[in-house]
Design goal:
The protein is α/β, with parallel strands linked by helices. It is built from 12 helices and 12 strands. It is globular, with a radius of gyration of 21 Å.
Length: 328
């Protein structure tokens, strides 16, 4: 067990390079406190999924160290993989597809205990269903007979049967309508308090991240470019990439919609990332230094960022670029 000053989850200088030359993660360092909800955002190809795979033990880092509760993840998995799986559970984006179509809900919820050689607990399963707002009549149904919201709740119930410490959630609200999405987010918040859960949540929906996460980690091309309290990032992002992501989020109130900051081109290949700052090929504020010098990850009282020319509160540079783009 870790002491009070040790993060519950920590990544120290994590890099992952695949055999095909893809450098999916490059020098990723971050920490997650016990009981926290951390949102992980960035475009496809930014390294979010690989980082989650390292944490759940499906990907060994090429360099660096991942720790859970102060202990290195790799030796924990090597010594007792089932014990580690009980502590760390993952919710996949397509909940229905992650549930075996050959098993009823009753068997799906009983399966984790069987795999981990735990005694069956039908009363506990029934209690979980009720807590998640599901009828016991669902126990006889199969995944294809469930709605999207029901499938996600069954997936959550399946994870909770093992009483995990940490849940890694990959796009848990994708494809759900607004009302069901809100109900699910409220449920996840309630379950955190009841079960003492820690969440690492991946999402492309920044409004979801703002609703549920206390901290937000922004990744670009395998690196963390900003890491700070969610409210602080939404109020005043320091990295231009973060500002561009925020400007593209959905706004319900037309009066509050911002002009979008348009990024030119696609995210570069991780096989041959750009020299200097990896974002410089698309950054609307690029300067010559950005093309040659790798920016360090700078930490201060607010959080951390990786940029030679960070934005400040009330900075007008990106707003002026957005207005010039004329993209509402």
């Amino acid at each position: 067990m870790s002491d009070a000053g040790t993060p519950f989850v920590s990544f120290q200088a994590i890099s992952v390079t695949f055999a095909n030359g893809v450098r999916a993660l490059d020098d990723v360092t971050l920490a997650i406190a016990r009981g926290a909800i951390v949102g992980l955002v960035g475009e496809s190809g930014s390294g979010k999924t690989t980082l989650c795979r390292v944490l759940v033990g499906l990907q060994r880092p090429t360099e660096g160290t991942a720790r859970l509760d102060g202990e290195r993840v790799s030796p924990l998995i090597a010594s007792n993989p089932l014990a580690y799986r009980r502590r760390v559970q993952m919710l996949l984006q397509d909940a229905a597809a992650s549930l075996s179509p050959r098993l009823s809900v009753a068997k799906l919820l009983a399966e984790p205990a069987r795999i981990h050689s735990l005694p069956p607990d039908p009363a506990g399963i029934a209690g979980l269903l009720r807590r998640l707002g599901l009828s016991e009549e669902l126990l006889a149904k199969y995944p294809h007979q469930l709605s999207g919201g029901q499938a996600r709740r069954v997936a959550i119930a399946r994870a909770l049967t093992l009483r995990p410490d940490l849940i890694v959630a990959d796009e848990p609200t994708a494809g759900l309508d607004l009302s069901v999405r809100g109900e699910l987010l409220n449920l996840m918040l309630e379950l955190r308090a009841e079960f003492g859960l820690t969440y690492l949540m991946v999402s492309h929906d920044l409004n979801v991240i703002r609703r549920i996460s206390e901290r937000m980690v922004v990744m670009y091309l395998g690196q963390v470019v900003e890491d700070a309290p969610t409210d602080a990032i939404f109020a005043a992002p320091r990295h231009p990439y973060t500002a561009a992501l925020l400007s593209a989020r959905a706004q319900i109130d037309p009066a509050r919609r911002q002009h979008r900051i348009v990024l030119q081109g696609e995210i570069p290949s991780p096989v041959n990332p750009p020299a200097g700052c990896r974002f410089h090929t698309r950054c609307p504020l690029v300067q010559s230094r950005c093309r040659s010098e790798v920016p360090p990850l700078v930490s201060d009282a607010i959080g951390s960022y990786r940029c030679h020319f960070p934005l400040g509160p009330g900075d007008q540079r990106l707003q002026e670029l957005a207005r010039a783009a004329h993209v509402p």
